[in-house]
Amino acid sequence: METLVVDHPLVAHKLTTLRDVRTDSPTFRRLADELVTLLAYEATRDVRVTDVTVDTPLAPASGVRLARPAPLVVPILRAGLGMLDGMTRLLPTAEVGFLGMIRDESTLQAQTYATRLPEDLSGRQCYVLDPMLATGGTLAAAIDFLFDRGARDVTAICLLAAPEGVAYLDEAFRGGDRPIRVVTAALDERLNENGYIVPGLGDAGDRLYGVV
Ligand code: URA
Fold first, then answer.
1. Predicted complex ipTM
2. What is the pLDDT of residues 1-46, one digit of tens each?
3. Residue ranges of the Phosphoribosyltransferase domain (predicted)?
4. Per-residue confidence band for 119, with pLDDT thresholds at 50, 70 and 90
5. Which among 78, 101, 132 is the best mutation to test ligand 1's pocket, defined by most ligand atoms within 8 Å of the CB?
6. pLDDT tens digits along 61-115
């Protein structure tokens, strides 16, 4: 599995403010949105394109357009929704599917509570949005779901990742037939006993949307 930690001063700057406990929800939402667009730029380096020719006012010019079928962007509810606009700004022709997953805080196991995705994902490149790669359980379940429907490859875009989560995904998707990548702004130190990333940024859903 490839893990790409995007090393860029703008990414580091935005992430630092996201981590800061004093950052309020409106600022957090705006910065998360901007950060995702920067991560999406790197995450889509291998997006499939087809060759086309267009006419400039002067002459024909060769170029590319995104290939069909369009990429599928899948935010994991609820916190992944805070990453959707930042992603579709860069990939406006992508389709969007939704996966509702919740982590049982006592067992830390992921459960699916909502799905709105095409039945057949054959040949699709999928981009899963989940701000926090913590234990890896939620993301692995979501990625499994996409491969079961035929996804060609899956890239997970996460604001932050823990080494434990990266190792979990690496193990779960070892072998070449289900290719995955993780693109993140930082690989943090560890998980604490409650499954939170340390130093992390706290509960991403609560910081985006408030405690509900
Ligand atoms: N989910 C979060 O929102 N934060 C963490 O640190 C881990 C999981």
1. 0.96
2. 999 999 999 999 999 999 999 999 999 999 999 999 999 999 999 9
3. 5-210
4. very high
5. 132
6. 999 999 999 999 999 998 999 999 999 999 999 999 999 988 777 776 788 889 9
- Residue to substitute in 129, 164, 196, 211 for testing ligand 1 pocket (most ligand atoms within 8 angstroms of CB): 196
Cα(123) to centroid of ligand 1, in Å? 31
Q: What are the tokens at 204?
A: 């991403």
Region for residue 181 given its phi and psi (left: phi exceeds 0; alpha: psi -120 to 50; beta: otherwise)? beta
Atom 3 of ligand 1, residue of closest alpha carbon: 203
Look up tokens 């006993």; give the residue.
Answer: 193
Query: Domains (ranges, CATH) in the chain?
Result: 2-48+66-209 (3.40.50.2020)
Give the C-alpha separation, 68 to 124, whole Å: 9
The CB of 132 under 6 Å from ligand 1? The reply is yes
Closest Cα to residue 157, out of 68, 211, 105, 91?
Answer: 91
SS3 158: strand
- How high is the pLDDT of residue 108? 67
Compute, in angstroms, the gap from residue 180 CA to the centroid of ligand 1: 21
Residues annotated in a binding site for uracil: 197, 202-204
Cα-based angle 171, 174, 177 (whole degrees, multiple of 5): 150
Residue 7 buriedness (CB in 10 A; 0-12 / 13-18 / 19+): exposed
- Atom nearest to 207 CA in ligand 1: 3
